[in-house]
């Protein structure tokens, strides 16, 4: 079995490459600029990985990179679209150039990679798995997240269309939407465990670990998940359950809410 993971030089992508290697896949480890980090991921796969450059800022070239990696691997059974970038900018200050950059990297690039992988899978005739990594912000807005939320929401809906169209070929397409995860993208150094980071507003009390998200991805990539397609599996420690809590506190505990508003700069 073979798998390609984009954005596999660190964080969730690295953890996913390791999880899939442990499940018996030979893994194509996609990276943008940090080849040394990608090679470190390859070492963690115990010889089950090859590294290759892939930049979603050029979707056509990224699709070609996926196709070449599949050729090197001798085929493709699993694609995990994990690469992406995060951004915060108020709507009134966002530039069209930056808006387009986020949509290109976080939505158009993953589409191009999925299309290339799906074409290969159809030609092989043995089905396959595509897993897109979105975010809780596929569903939940965040201040300054216009471009990021639009891209992740679009990727979630694209997942459903791909699942519908590719089902006749035995290809399942699903998404995993992580909440806050302790990775370098979120300012957490490699090696720092999420258990030591307090997040009182998350029911689990901490951010997620990359390996916890990777476990969900690996499940959706497994043969046992053959009857699961077109869904988004959220891995967020309960963060998305909290949307009404601030208002509940305001209505039922005005003194406590006044403190919350002061600390968080929220206007009730």
Widest sheet, order of strands: 3-2-1-4-5-6-7
Overall 3D form: globular
Number of helices: 8
Structural class, please?
alpha/beta
Description:
The protein has 268 residues and is α/β, with parallel strands linked by helices. The chain has 2 domains: 2-237, NAD(P)-binding Rossmann-like Domain (Rossmann fold, 3-Layer(aba) Sandwich); 241-268, no CATH class. Helix content is 44%, strand content 14%. The chain is built from 8 helices and 7 strands, in the order E-H-E-H-E-H-E-H-E-H-E-H-E-H-H. The chain has a 7-stranded parallel sheet, with helices on both faces. The model has no long low-confidence stretch (mean pLDDT 91). Belongs to the short-chain dehydrogenases/reductases (SDR) family. Pfam families: adh_short_C2. This is SDR family oxidoreductase.
Q: What descriptors fit this protein?
A:
268 residues; alpha/beta; Rossmann fold; 2 domains; seven-stranded parallel beta sheet; 8 helices; NAD(P)-bd_dom_sf; SDR_fam; SDR family oxidoreductase; Sc_DH/Rdtase_CS
Short description:
The chain is of the alpha/beta class and 268 residues long. The chain is 44% helix and 14% strand.
SSE map:
Elements: E1 2-5, H1 11-22, E2 26-31, H2 35-44, E3 49-53, H3 59-73, E4 78-81, H4 96-124, E5 128-133, H5 146-166, E6 171-178, H6 210-221, E7 232-235, H7 245-252, H8 254-264
Parallel strand pairs: 1-2, 1-4, 2-3, 4-5, 5-6, 6-7
Helix pairs in contact: 1-2, 1-6, 3-4, 4-5, 7-8
